[in-house]
Write the structure tokens for this entry.
Amino acid sequence: MNAAKSFSSRLAGWLPRIVVAPSLLIVIVTVYLFILWTGVISFTSSKFVPVYDFAGLEQFIRLWATPRWHTAVANLFIFSALFLMLSTGIGLLMAILLDQNIRAEGFLRAVYLYPMALSFIVTGTAWKWIMNPGLGIQKVVNELGWTSFTFDWITDPKMAIYTVVIAGVWQSSGFAMAIFLAGLRGIDNSVIKAAQIEGASLPLIYRQIIIPMLRPAMLSVIVLLSYIAIKSFDLVLALTNGGPGSATELPSTFMFSATFRRNQMGVGAASAIMMLMTVAAIIIPYLYSELRERNNG
Amino acid sequence: MANALSQQKPTVESISRQNRIRIGRLFIYGPLAVMAVLYLMPLWVMVVTSLKPLDEIYGGSFIGLPQTVTLDAWRSAWSQACIGTECTGLRPYFVNSLLMVIPAVVLSTGIGAINGYILTKWRFPGANFVFGLLLFGCFLPYQAILIPMARTLGLLGLAGSIPGLVFVHVAYGICFTTLFFRNYFVSLPDELTKAAMVDGAGFFRIFWSVILPTSIPIIVVSCIWQFTQIWNDFLFGVSFTSGGNSPITVALNNIVNVTTGRKQYNVDMAAAMIAAIPTLLVYIVAGRYFVRGLTAGAVKG
């Protein structure tokens, strides 16, 4: 009787761990083991199917000797920098304006945020049509009388990456706005009141007091937008399909086409590992600080 | 004090101040309105283009209202447009996406709920480490697992199938749903479960009759987030399926990238709208919960 009871109570003690175990197992396998697997493939000479020989750093050397990869990395820097600056700037501006006790706030917020509900494929399809030089914006402006106006970035290899920035900012700046607005709503109004009584002007209050107080929100926005930028794949595919030529190639599209289209699985795996290391360098310190603060607070 | 000031009788000075405030309001509403127009423009262009006959599109008007409204493009996108060599329209792919999204949302939300419950109310040594392991999965660049997942789906006999996609979405969705539920349950008082335990309720009983009834809002948040993510996914769809088993995003991309013949922009836009409508509807009906899901990963619990 006693033994049976202790068995059942011991079972009850283990039950939570038993129930959480399958999820943990799935995540350990599909996240961590798969990362390791990709890492292993990046050190082999795999082409069409994985082969498990040891080729040392051959694939990484080949990757960094590929001009297409250099284009992809350069594009990632251009795209991420502009995408981050514009989305953060526009998002912050909209959040501050929305926070001024305005009418129709709910409606405006909904309008700024609806692109986030769309698939990047839908966004890419729509903007591809809007920026179509023959029939899109260019033609509208021309017909309004400004006949010399040209907007053919999407077919211009030098400018095409900026069309990806435009569509990306349209899709994601509302997201930055939402996080900043949540941050603004968390700021104690009495701080602002006190500064106003002291005679500080509103722009000064924002520059000196409120925006510095938004630092945690700013950090979240920057980290999450960087993550969106690095994994951007569908947007490029739908908008420009990596072209013209390879002008809008990003690491994500490079990895996909190397692996599934050009039978260079080893190079694809090597590029995936480069992407993973970039994301990890940004995300792990962020998660670490978030979790630590949460435990302390 | 501030209130007392603003309730003074209008003087010349306070009237000119009111004018200043009114001009100030203009600087607030002006940019907001311009932004709203810019944000709505692509949706407007998609809708009007999808309602125009092709000749009108090539004839010129891009942003204006259609002169003749026709649903032909929608009909074609839904049931006639060619995806690869199959001219079936988007309908079968819409069904594929539904068959994928419903089980994936239900499973990942259910598993996330019970994980969140365990990680907050039945904490065990190492629970925080387990949570950290799951959390990194939210930020995994999926390119890093594409090749092994493709191999594994092949070994499991799930390659190219909808159940295979469901498995993938559940596996990576657990990370997000666990995060949602854990952060929500952390704020539920422990007395709730303790009292139930004193009353003799066990692990599952407490989950069903104490925890779940309080968690409707977070269930909604989780379902909406997962629905949007999975419906909009393209990378997994294009990597792990082909032909008739593809989800709608892959089919849409195929329609749009057809290069033969006269480009049917109105069909492209109608197809994009068909792919967008389910998530847009969810957003319109339950936008509040959608925003909570978006900010859950950012704002501390």
Summary: The CA atoms of residues 87 and 173 of chain A lie 4 Å apart. Chain A is about 75% helix and 0% strand.
